[in-house]
Amino acid sequence: VYGSGGTITKFDRQLFFVGDIPLQSIVIDGPEQFKVESVEEYARHYSDTNIYRVKAVDKLGKYI
Question: Residue 19's pLDDT band (boundaries 50, 70, 90)?
Fold first, then answer.
């Protein structure tokens, strides 16, 4: 949270994933849901993994 410059809150996450996830998709992790906000496309140039910034949302998809 501190190193993100205030762009990540305690409810948000970075998701490291092999493959592509469309922006604005909902990602479910147990009881929690997150919306994909942005991607750093490392897969294209450096590795098989992309880094996604996901923000917490409620069951209706509204930001927490």
Answer: confident
